[in-house]
Write a structure and sequence with these properties.
elongated, about 35% helix, unfolded protein binding, chaperone, single chain, Bacterial Protein-export protein SecB, protein transport, 3 helices, SecB-like_sf, alpha+beta, SecB
Length: about 170
């Protein structure tokens, strides 16, 4: 049975034409500091961890975008910084055939989700190489973070674009 609705046919063709490809995933920047070493290794107590995420999207071609996922992990014990791990995991993604809203959603959800396993591994390796017990970042729901960001921007009247924003 054929579909006689031209709008539905056009939408189906546009969805079939949309393509996403990952051109490259790379570590853009990494830093690990243990400001109180070696004394910090003698400290006892329950450490507190603070995780901060950031994202930056930059258009680098007609259909190519660099997405940078920033992960900052701070470990404190008795209000002293034990270690600080900071990385910027990046990727180049090519998105073709997406409307603006869908492209922004893909850049804000799928792309950081693709980068996250690499960031998780790098943070774990840095912490271990720094002489500390293994640390595993818990999964992050980037769909929920994106939805919250869009609600916040709508409330502030900033619009929906991610490109060029941190």
């Amino acid at each position: 049975m054929s579909n006689d609705n031209p709008a539905a046919n056009g939408q189906a063709e546009a969805q079939q034409a949309a393509q996403l490809s990952i051109q490259k995933i790379y570590l853009k920047d990494a830093s690990f500091e243990v400001p109180g070493s070696p004394q910090v290794f003698q400290e006892q107590g329950q450490p507190q961890f603070k995780l901060e995420l950031s994202q930056r999207v930059q258009q680098i071609g007609d259909t190519a975008f660099e997405v940078v996922l920033g992960v900052n992990l701070t470990c404190e014990l008795a209000e002293k910084v034990v270690f600080l791990a900071e990385i910027k995991q990046a990727g180049i993604f090519v998105l073709e055939g997406f409307d603006d809203a869908t492209r922004q959603a893909v850049l804000g959800t799928y792309c950081p989700q693709a980068l996250f396993p690499y960031a998780r591994s790098t943070i774990s390796e840095l912490v271990l190489a720094g002489g500390f017990p293994p640390f595993v970042l818990q999964p992050i729901n980037f769909d929920q973070l994106y939805a919250e960001q869009m609600r916040r921007r709508a409330a502030e009247g900033q619009g929906e674009g991610l490109v060029g924003h941190a």
